[in-house]
Amino acid sequence: MKKITRKNLEKFLKKYATDKKILDVGSGGSSYERFFPNRLSVDIDPERKPDIVADAQNLPFQNEEFDFVLCTEMLEHTENPFAVEKELHRVLKVGGTLLLTTRFVYPLHDTPHDYWRFTKYGLLKIFREWELVEIIAETSSFSTIAALLQRIQFQSILKANKLSKLLMQLFIVLFDNLNWVLHEEYGDIKRKNREEDIMTTGYYIVVKKK
């Protein structure tokens, strides 16, 4: 089964696909060439074979060098997300676009370099000096449970292997198709503040440099 989060991410990236030159920060081993064929990839890990090995907190580029910056699944792995925001802002031209995705409800991954989780309110604080285009939850709340079960499969060795895998697969399909039962969600247990997708796996945020 394809990753629940991956299919949502690819659908989102497709909306912003471009053949213009872009900077892909923290590109890792991502395979987004079909959406961004002219990307310049940057990653701190040389084993991932980026075009340029560099820390996102200290990018080797001139001020306002790029019109578009892509940053997927990296912010939670950097020691100082505020420093990264400043660097992304610096290398973008005025009016340039940043497309960033990151994690909220999600297991440990790529340890030990897994440091942060972000609510949408935290992201809006970090990017408060930017113009917000959109911020989208990656998954609905029950699909998040399905995605977490999927990650347990990927990152664990289960007892009663075949039976466990079958049961997990059944639960994954069940929860991924259970979002229809949600009528209203709230950001507090007293149910005063309406919210949506209170347990999403992460967020996709698009902002422009003012």
Description of the molecule:
This protein is an alpha/beta fold and 210 residues long. It has 2 domains: 4-141 and 197-208, Rossmann fold (3-Layer(aba) Sandwich), CATH 3.40.50; 142-186, no CATH class. The protein is 29% helix and 23% strand. The protein has helices spanning 4-15, 81-91, 120-126, 141-155, 161-176; strands at residues 22-25, 39-43, 52-53, 66-72, 92-103, 131-137, 185-186, 194-195, 202-208. The strands form 2 sheets. Strands 3-2-1-4-5-9-6 form a 7-stranded mixed beta sheet. The chain has a two-stranded antiparallel sheet with strand order 7-8. Helix 4 runs antiparallel to helix 5. It is globular, with a radius of gyration of 18 Å. The protein starts with a helix and ends with a strand. The model has no long low-confidence stretch (mean pLDDT 95).
Topology:
Blueprint: H1 4-15, E1 22-25, E2 39-43, E3 52-53, E4 66-72, H2 81-91, E5 92-103, H3 120-126, E6 131-137, H4 141-155, H5 161-176, E7 185-186, E8 194-195, E9 202-208
Parallel strand pairs: 1-2, 1-4, 2-3, 4-5
Antiparallel strand pairs: 5-9, 6-9, 7-8
Helix pairs in contact: 4-5
